[in-house]
From TrEMBL:
Signal peptide bounds: none
Organism field: Trichoderma asperellum (strain ATCC 204424 / CBS 433.97 / NBRC 101777)
Keywords in alphabetical order: S-adenosyl-L-methionine, Transferase
Family: Belongs to the class I-like SAM-binding methyltransferase superfamily.
Classification of source organism: Eukaryota, Fungi, Dikarya, Ascomycota, Pezizomycotina
Name listed for the protein in its UniProt record: Methyltransferase domain-containing protein
Domain Methyltransferase positions: 101-201
Pathway(s) this gene product operates in, as recorded in its UniProt entry: Secondary metabolite biosynthesis
Amino acid sequence: MDHEATLDRWKRFTYVDNLPEDISYFRNLLEKYSNIPPEDIDCLLLRTRERLWEVAMYPCIGRWSFLNLQSVHDPHFYTVVQRLRDSAASGAESSYPEALLDIGCCVGQLLRKLVHDGIDPTRLFGTDLHPEFISIGAELFRDEGCGLTFAAGDMLDPRDEDLNILDGKITLVHAGNFFHLFTWEEQVVIGMRIVRFLHPGTIDAIIFGRQIGSHNPRERQGGRKSFLHNEESLQRLWNEVGVKTGTRWRVQMNINEERVVDIPGFGVEDRYVRFGIYQFPLRKAGTATADT
């Protein structure tokens, strides 16, 4: 199959022409946060999606998934928002300020939702491989210089200095539709980079999100290789990250049994999952504590 035919087949399975009907959260955000007239929103979103697709033909772009703001329904989201608000309220009394990083932030839609809900934008950070996504986001939301911090860089490259701006600043991490794009070894590298982002002294970081997992954890073949997890395999991976970084982590995962993954390259055992990865303190010397 030639390259053009392959791209046509990919678009058939991953590209939806029309806007989804239920994007009320996103519409409301554009109306209330960006002051965009309701009658202008459809054309703006169609134009924006075409620009994003020209940068990267991701299923989340082609299928409009970046519009659904579904992370706001994740119980972790409520915990994270409360921690950000409590930290702001405690001010100088807090041992360190809470700060959220959105990895693979696309146009920064989740961060804008948080700002609209009253979270201090200076405590919100986003990173994406594609700097074009970040600039398109600033145009979409009409908020250049709003106080959010973005860094475009490669999470797989420990030497990428463009990400150094995040080092030592983060306590909370959202990673939606992200880890399932990478192999086991690459996920370990990403995990180590995330630990670099943590504020010194952080002992209760949370990493959470939604992705594709599997009842049958394995390296996915065909196209770009990647590793799909169940709860046990994800725990093993973060045990490895912990050993390499001197940290400890506990993994929790919920599998959505009702929704089968219908993207090319995924199997019948693959499911959408929500996960939480919780940091907890290292054992003190001489203390007997069961490993997870």
